[in-house]
Amino acid sequence: MGQTALHVACQNGHKTTVLCLLDSGADINRPNVSGATPLYFACSHGQRDTAQILLSRGAKYVADKNGVTPLDLCVQGGYGETCEILMQHHHRLFQTLIQMTQNKDIKENMLRQVLEHVSQQSDGHYHRVLISLAEVATTNGHKLLRCPEL
């Protein structure tokens, strides 16, 4: 399937092996046949430390060939700590996470688990999550109540 040693090490959270492979010239962004990169593999298994290593070394945040992103995988697995690492490196992902509340295909309990983790990191994160969720609720409420123009 085109996995490299780096893909496998990232999936299994073998930090020392990941560092050794990267120091030896492994391609940090090499996709497998389905377009999954080492970061994708780390996120699919909630490997927070491995994701941190990859991101600090310049790993690109890209979706696979089906459009599934590392953040999608973190949310699907309920991996709040790994989501937090992604958002520390890519601040725009916070808004993407909030928008996921509108996706009916995402398991609600996993998304709630991630949002709870993010909001517990600091008072600032807590308020940001609450305000963002309130904005989504307000927007949805306005859409429901808006009368079509006559």
Write a concise synopsis of the structure shown.
The protein has helices at about 5-10, 15-25, 40-45, 50-55, 70-75, 80-90, 95-100, 110-120, 125-145. With about 150 residues, the chain is mainly α.
Whole-number count of domains: 1
Number of E-type strands: 0
What pattern of helices and strands is seen along the backbone? HHHHHHHHH
Count of runs of 4 or more consecutive helical residues: 9
Strand content: under 5%
- Return the CATH architecture: Alpha Horseshoe
Counting helices, strands and paired strands, the structural category is mainly alpha
Ranges where pLDDT stays below 50 over 5 or more residues in a row are none
Distance N to C terminus = 57 Å
Tell me the name of the CATH homologous superfamily. Answer: Ankyrin repeat-containing domain
Whole-angstrom Rg = 17 Å
| CATH class categorisation | Mainly Alpha
Salient structural properties:
single chain, 150 residues, mainly alpha, Serine Threonine Protein Phosphatase 5, Tetratricopeptide repeat, 9 helices, 0% strand, elongated
Account of the protein in words:
The chain is mostly helical. The protein has one domain: Ankyrin repeat-containing domain (Serine Threonine Protein Phosphatase 5, Tetratricopeptide repeat), CATH 1.25.40. 62% of the residues lie in helices and 0% in strands. The protein has helices spanning 5-12, 15-23, 38-44, 48-56, 70-77, 80-89, 93-99, 108-119, 123-145. α3 runs antiparallel to α4 and α5 crosses α8. The chain starts with a helix and ends in a 5-residue tail after the last helix. The relative contact order is 0.10. The mean pLDDT is 89.
